[in-house]
Design brief:
The chain is of the alpha/beta class. 40% of the residues lie in helices and 14% in strands. α5 (129-146) packs parallel to α8 (211-227).
Length: 235
């Protein structure tokens, strides 16, 4: 079997206290993985820390947000002809040792593979009550719209094969979020979750840290799941 060229897409916004530890781990223990850092207009030393580890840095001139930063990384992967994109956060939450199981399922024929904190009844990762309610709601509407069963719909640890990530970057309305995953599932693409362990972020703040930002995310994602998955995409 052809060895897949894999690129880790790592968005980073004000992650100076977390990014260095993640990149040191990748450099020391997982040197076979290429990675690109998308500095999403950070106001701290994120870029300086990234430069200590790699030349693959996309320094965005304006803040695009998480989805926009990931799409910028996917565009880089497309230009460099990578077979697989794996998105992981720059906050240290996603452990590199769980990347390989995601890639293995792509080799087995899946199109999108998601790292789930809760598959097989895993309970180690702690969530607030509001996040649990929101995740349960997204699980419900994802299944309603596509039949797709997701135990961790908000997981940010995802792997995409080339035909999927190419369509995401070519479609201005698509983004690496649950609504796009549901859209692909409705169009016959194969989606699978694999169990992973995640840890709390090393430092900094989540983009879903506050109750209002979480509410806004859930509302926007709900609307997108109800509308976007109706669109047809090719296989």
């Amino acid at each position: 079997m052809k060895k897949l060229r894999v690129l880790l897409v790592i968005p980073a916004y004000n992650e100076e206290k977390s990014l260095g530890k993640l990149l040191s781990t990748l450099d020391e223990k997982f040197p076979l993985y290429d990675y690109v850092i998308i500095n999403d207009c950070s106001k701290d030393n994120t870029k300086k820390i990234a430069e200590q580890h790699t030349e693959r840095i996309i320094d965005l001139p304006i803040n695009l947000g998480l989805s926009g930063a990931i799409k910028a990384g996917m565009l880089y992967a497309y230009q460099k002809n990578y077979d697989v994109c794996v998105q992981i956060d720059g906050d240290g939450q996603h452990l590199p040792e769980y990347i390989e199981p995601l890639i293995r399922e792509l080799e087995n024929g899946y199109d999108i593979v998601i790292g789930s904190r809760f598959l097989d009844g895993k309970k180690e990762y702690q969530q607030t009550l509001f996040r649990k309610i929101g995740a349960s709601w997204l699980q419900f509407i994802a299944k309603l719209q596509s039949g797709l069963v997701l135990t961790d719909p908000t997981s940010g640890m995802r792997a995409y094969n080339k035909k999927v990530y190419e369509q995401i970057i070519m479609d201005m309305n698509a983004k690496p979020e649950p609504d796009t995953i549901v859209m692909f599932a409705r169009n016959g693409y194969k989606v699978k979750e694999v169990p992973v362990v995640m840890q709390e972020r090393f430092a900094g703040k989540s983009h879903l840290g506050g109750i209002f930002s979480s509410m806004r995310y859930m509302i926007h994602t709900t609307i997108a799941i109800l509308l976007n998955p109706r669109r047809k995409i090719g296989k």
